[in-house]
Amino acid sequence: MDRLTLSDKELEYLTNKTEDRLEKAVKNIHQKIYDNSILKNSLITNDKLFLFSGLIMAGLQTEGVTQLKSENLTSNDDEDDNDGQIIIRKIKSFLNKRKASREKMKMITSLLSPIFTKRLLWQNINGQSLIKSLYTDVYKDILPLLESDLQLDFTGKILNSLNDWVSIENDKQNDVVLTPRYITQLMAKLAHTDKDSYVWDTAMGSGGFLVSAMDIMIKDAKDKIRDSEKLKEKINQIKKHQLLGIELLGNIYILAVLNMILMGDGSSNMRNDDSHNVYKQLKFPANVFLLNPPYSAEGKGFNFVKEAFSQMHSGYGAVLIQENAGSGNGLPYTKEILENNTLVASIHMPNDLFNGKASVQTAIYVFKVNDPHNEKKAVTFIDFSDDGYTRQNRKRSSQAVNLRDTDNAKARYQEVIDLVLGNVPDTHYYTESNGKLIRDRITLKGNDWTYTQHLKIDITPTEEDFKKTVADYLSWKVSQVINDDQND
């Protein structure tokens, strides 16, 4: 009933507040793991990912299954009858009731079972198992937040929290960098996502882009469909048929599946596979492409973009990528992409976007798919380095909140969306007069896509420049006279 009366602004505030509480709760539980010498030295990052995921799957309320409570965990010190076995049975019930495919159930249980059969987790230590101790915290502090009916990229919060302590596979290559939710929302809007979109992400990570896209699609459906039965059918269609994600890393894939199952099972079209090998097998009518690729891939990740666009007949793509991929490091893919697609916008992003997790300078490149680039076409370049947010380094902060709106960030994000979509914005922070907005041509060489390459610096001296030069000279001359007098 409360949600029926909340405005979009109030819902956004509630979502941010809930995500902050969720991240703080995850941090506290992970700190407990970190402080336990047995767990700290025995569990690698993947183990922790699977441990968190399994405890959450086992505890979520599921129709037809009695919810697992802390007191149901017996802490039996027995190889065949212990808390780990209880968790595994509950995970299977959860997946079965959520109608996960047999293949998906087999894959998930094969990843999780080795964790919950570890003796160090289920053995009785001082009256209870470590599983029971950790589940008690999950049951009390995390599950109520996940059952709030808000669209949360909660597995991204888990992964980001684990990153505070340890690096993960391919981390040195910046291959696993979780895109913040406010950026996934921005990109989904830049790509014209609506209720009729078919959205895919071929390096989906924990599924953050798909969560944001699904949220936008469902909201659009609710705004435009008045008949309750038709709305219900449309939402089911969106979740089961209009989203597709592919992820190579099994440990990240399981987070994406869990993420989308919690959204009402948008996990139907999620593949644990190498996207380069499955494109020809896919029969998905994608018209929205969202991506933050592994930057160590060919063309800094633009090989993913070229392959995806080659399978699309129309629509838009928004790609968050290392910015210099657009100034030559993405060749030959950037040049080849322009042969069949139009670069609509190039957005220079804040250099602390990933807040210490990755040090690369990024940009969002927006494309119109299956429309060859015309050299006379104006491309929109935006300096979005000052986006209105202040970020804290989460490693140096004891607070879960690491993002603060300190200068009208919400309005600035909406202004960028309006500028790229061709709307008249309500605010005017990014303008051609102040140089933060540039409309310019690019060549078809694929190496002149960055904002700074189109920034024109006026070197013509002004009267103010002349006055400053004269003032500096007079100041120097006076200082010389004073020094001469003192030496005499």
Automatic annotation (TrEMBL):
Domain DNA methylase adenine-specific: 171-298, 304-396
Protein's organism: Limosilactobacillus vaginalis
EC number: 2.1.1.72
Listed Pfam families: N6_Mtase
InterPro entries cross-referenced by the UniProt entry: DNA_Adenine_Mtase (IPR051537), DNA_methylase_A-5 (IPR003356), SAM-dependent_MTases_sf (IPR029063)
Domain of life: Bacteria
A biological-process GO annotation: methylation
Reaction catalysis annotation: a 2'-deoxyadenosine in DNA + S-adenosyl-L-methionine = an N(6)-methyl-2'-deoxyadenosine in DNA + S-adenosyl-L-homocysteine + H(+)
Lineage: Bacteria, Bacillati, Bacillota, Bacilli, Lactobacillales
Name the record gives this protein: site-specific DNA-methyltransferase (adenine-specific)
Gene Ontology MF terms: methyltransferase activity
Keywords carried by this UniProt record: Methyltransferase, Restriction system, S-adenosyl-L-methionine, Transferase
